[in-house]
Write a structure and sequence with these properties.
heterodimer; A: 159 residues; alpha+beta; Sufe protein. Chain: A; 19% strand; globular; B: 414 residues; alpha/beta; Aspartate Aminotransferase, domain 1; Aspartate Aminotransferase, domain 2; seven-stranded mixed sheet; four-stranded antiparallel sheet; 16 helices
Chain lengths: 159, 414
């Protein structure tokens, strides 16, 4: 552990959970059996991610991913995999919209109350809104997830 | 004046006083701007020249018969003289103004590529080109049956001269289009040898001098090259203006690139005739104010002098390489013997984007990414690097701030 006091100026974006997940993601693996997969590619910076989804009667059973990118994108993919597990596809799409608002604005005041718990888990990523060039790092894995759910092979990050 | 008595000494504090932006604070910390290779900051002289032109004499050029247009035409055309002198061009008419280096290379790829090169001939670039010196030639290849060849780069990040020469041996290469200094590795290419070898095999040579002209005296007659392109905004001038220098006989053989006003001799619906070089290549109202700004930038650089600039930069680069070598887990990409003040690096515990953001939090601006040179990144097995680049206003203290900042980043990511 580092001495957090001496890194106050660095910690608003890189909270401990992001450093930890970026270093040791829990869900960074290719699924052996899956129902959908898609790649995400950010041509501006070279970040790449692929997600695999296993479905179970309209819900997401598991998500695995492989990512080459920064701590933000890896941590975001990992937190995404965790928060969408056991969630219906429709719910997952709502959560994506809520997360995108969070990443762009730092808050999601109109988010559905039912999403409060996963949004709290995703809250450590809210700091990216202050870094317009980094928002896409956080949202790229979600774009890949949405592409997979929609049956597409590839997603591009928003510019 | 110190600079006059000792040409190798550069009074960096006085120079910093010429750049209004350097007094800024970023996130409450003094700005440490180490991204000049992407675009350099502008001295007061450039800012004032452009503002003054707008406030006192602005009008369109080459067509007005009134005082304002004449004064502005003179000011704009003075930039052509300044650029010709800067590069030691044989004649001012060899200076073609473009939008930037990319515009200059596209002009050459269209006009020389389609008008002079023949299908079956080849263009030879290197493995360390910026995308702007790759994609226009790919487009030419696909449209006109011109082969595209890539000269190899060594593990040290230098041009593989033997590999380069081998690609010229069959005599099919009509044009070598190669960087003079890598925007990623800082490598300065042995330009005279590149030209000698190319000419011995019947190929012309274009240098992309976007980086080199900022750091080294460029003498196109001494280099004996055929074309040389660069851009104003990296040489402390404004955006929107670049230069294509070409030998006059070659420019005269090339058809126009864009058609329009200013590039014609006469126009009739049946047929039009072209203006003489360089105007044949300068269709439409040009970047007038930017030309005036470029003139001021060239004057500024000439006053400081390349001897002082190059020495300053060499000292900074040496200091930076020593400081960065002491950062555990840091790898500098490219170890060229002859290099300029552009240093790319990776940090083992942190992705380059995280490095850049965490340095930014400390007020230090570097670039991170593939630097518009994806093939070179792949050559070194990388997706991205962080890059620090220096200018005439860069101080040793700023390099120390970078090294200290990187030590903090590394500790943060432990």
């Amino acid at each position: 552990m580092t001495d957090s006091d001496s890194f106050d100026d660095l910690r608003d974006l890189y909270q401990e959970v992001i450093l930890d997940r970026g270093r040791k993601p829990r869900h960074a693996r290719r699924l052996e059996t899956f129902d959908a997969t898609a790649k995400g590619d950010n041509p501006m910076c070279g970040d790449r991610v692929q997600v695999w989804i296993a479905l179970d009667t309209g819900s997401i059973a598991r998500v695995g991913f492989e990512a080459r990118g920064c701590a933000i994108s890896v941590a975001s993919a990992d937190l995404m995999a965790e928060t969408v597990q056991h969630r219906t596809v429709a719910d997952t799409k709502s959560l994506f919209e809520a997360f995108r608002t969070l990443a762009r604005t730092g808050a999601c005041p109109d988010c559905a109350p039912g999403l409060a718990e996963p949004m709290e888990q995703l809250a450590p990523l809210a700091g990216v809104h202050e870094y317009p060039s980094r928002v896409k790092c956080a949202t790229l894995p979600w774009h890949a997830l949405m592409a997979a759910l929609d049956g597409a092979k590839e997603a591009s990050s928003e510019r | 004046m110190n600079i006059m008595t000792n040409p190798a000494a550069l009074d960096v504090e006085r120079i910093r006083g010429d750049f209004p932006i350097l007094t800024q604070t970023i996130r409450g910390k003094p700005l440490v701007f180490l991204d000049s290779a992407a675009s350099a900051q502008k001295p007061r002289a450039v800012i004032d020249a452009m503002v003054q032109a707008m406030e006192t004499q602005y009008a369109n050029i080459h067509r007005g018969l009134h005082w304002m247009s004449e004064r502005t035409t003179e000011a704009y055309e003075a930039a052509r003289d300044a650029a010709a002198t800067l590069m030691n061009a044989n004649d001012r008419s060899e200076i073609v103004f473009t939008g930037n280096s990319t515009g200059a290379i596209n002009l050459l790829a269209h006009s020389y590529g389609r008008g002079v090169l023949k299908p079956g001939q080849a263009v030879l670039i290197s493995g360390m080109e910026h995308h702007s010196n790759i994609v226009p030639w790919q487009m030419l290849r696909d449209a006109n049956g011109i082969e595209l060849r890539i000269a190899p780069v060594t593990d040290a990040g230098e041009l593989d001269i033997a590999g380069y020469e081998a690609l010229l041996e069959d005599g099919k290469v009509g044009l070598v289009a190669i960087t003079h200094m890598s925007n990623v590795l800082g490598t300065v290419v042995p330009a005279e040898r590149v030209v000698q070898i190319a000419h011995a095999h019947g190929a012309k040579v274009m240098f992309d001098g976007s980086q080199a002209i900022v750091h080294r005296k460029v003498d196109v007659q001494a280099l004996d090259c055929d074309f040389y392109v660069w851009t104003g905004h990296k040489l402390y001038g404004p955006t929107g203006i670049g230069v294509l220098w070409g030998r006059r006989d070659l420019l005269e053989r090339m058809p126009p690139f864009m058609g329009g006003g200013d590039m014609i001799s006469s126009v009739a619906f049946e047929q039009s005739t072209w203006a003489a070089v360089p105007h044949k290549f300068e269709a439409g109202t040009p970047a007038i104010l930017e030309g005036i700004g470029l003139k001021a930038a060239i004057d500024y650089v000439q006053t400081i002098g390349y001897d002082a600039m190059t020495a300053h930069e060499a000292s900074l680069t040496e200091h930076a390489l020593a400081r960065l070598a002491a950062v555990e887990g840091l790898r500098v990409v490219g170890q060229a013997q002859d290099r300029g003040g552009v240093i790319s690096f990776t940090l083992d515990k942190a992705h380059s984007h995280d490095v850049a953001t965490l340095l930014d939090r400390q007020g230090i601006a570097v670039r991170a990414g593939h630097h518009c040179a994806e093939p070179l990144m792949r050559r070194f097995g990388l997706d991205s690097t962080a890059r620090a680049s220096f200018g005439i206003y860069t101080t040793r203290g700023e390099i120390d701030a970078l090294a200290d900042g990187l030590l903090r980043v590394r500790e943060f990511f432990q």
